[in-house]
Design goal:
Rossmann fold; Arc Repressor Mutant, subunit A; about 55% helix; 2 domains; alpha/beta
C-alpha cells in the first residue's frame, strides 16, 4: 500500500492513547499516520467520521460510554472505517459481543505493540483479526449444540438424525429403525421441526457442525 494507513485512537486513559499514538507515529511513520486520538468517547464518532479514518482503535472499558456502543455507532455512521476493539482482559463473551457489534478485530492491550502493524493492515484489507486463542474458543462455542436442543431429543431422534446425516434414504432409515416408511417420514418431519432444519440437507449440515456424527456410535 503506497498510502499510509490513517489511524484514530479512542481510549479514556490519556497516557495509553498518547503513548500508542507516539509509538505508531515514530516506529511506523512510513506506514501509519495517527490522525487523532481522544479520551472522550462521546465525541469519538464525530471525530472519526470527519477525519477520513481507515482504522479506529477502540478501548472497550470506557466508563462514560461503553466501547461497544462506540463501535456500533461507528459502524452505523461511517461503515467504511474498520474498527479494532482493544481490551485489557481477554474475555470470550466480550469478543462475541464486539464481533456482533461490527468490530473487524479484537486484540488485548498486553499484545506486543511492535506486532500491531500486521493486524492494522490485515483489517484495512478486509480481514478479521483475532488472537488464535479467541478464535479457537469462538469456533468451539459455534460447534457446540445448544443444551435445550439435545435435551429435547429422544435417543431415537438422535439416531434418526445420525442416519439422515449419513445420507440414508427413507427406506434405509425405516429398515434400520424397524418402522414403516410412512412412520419414518413422520418422524423425519418432527425431527426437522425440532432442530430447526428446512430439509434433510440442512439437517446433515447441522449434524456436521455440532459434531453429532463424531459422537455417534457406528450403526
Amino acid at each position: 500500500m503506497q498510502d499510509r494507513l490513517r489511524i484514530f485512537i479512542i481510549d479514556d486513559h490519556a497516557l495509553f492513547a498518547q503513548g500508542l499514538a507516539l509509538l505508531l507515529s515514530t516506529e511506523a511513520a512510513s506506514h501509519v499516520e495517527v490522525v487523532g486520538h481522544t479520551t472522550h468517547p462521546e465525541e469519538a464518532v464525530s471525530l472519526v467520521c470527519s477525519s477520513d479514518v481507515d482504522v479506529a482503535l477502540v478501548d472497550l472499558a470506557m466508563p462514560r460510554l461503553a466501547g461497544i456502543d462506540v463501535i456500533r455507532s461507528l459502524k452505523k455512521r461511517c461503515p467504511q472505517t474498520k474498527v479494532i476493539a482493544l481490551t485489557g482482559i481477554d474475555d470470550l463473551e466480550a469478543g462475541r459481543r464486539v464481533l456482533r457489534a461490527g468490530a473487524d478485530g479484537y486484540l488485548t492491550k498486553s499484545a506486543d505493540p511492535g506486532m500491531l502493524l500486521a493486524p492494522l493492515f490485515a483489517v484495512a484489507s478486509g480481514l478479521c483479526v483475532l488472537r488464535h486463542e479467541m478464535l479457537d474458543a469462538l469456533l468451539a462455542v459455534a460447534r457446540t449444540p445448544p443444551d435445550d436442543l439435545l435435551a429435547g431429543l429422544s435417543d431415537q431422534e438422535l439416531r434418526l438424525w445420525v442416519l439422515l446425516a449419513r445420507g440414508l434414504d427413507t427406506g434405509g432409515i425405516a429398515h434400520r429403525m424397524l418402522v414403516s416408511e410412512r412412520t419414518t417420514k413422520r418422524m423425519i418431519a418432527v425431527l426437522l421441526r425440532k432442530i430447526g432444519a428446512a430439509n434433510r440437507t440442512e439437517a446433515a449440515g447441522l449434524a456436521g457442525r455440532y459434531g453429532i456424527l463424531d459422537a455417534a456410535p457406528g450403526d
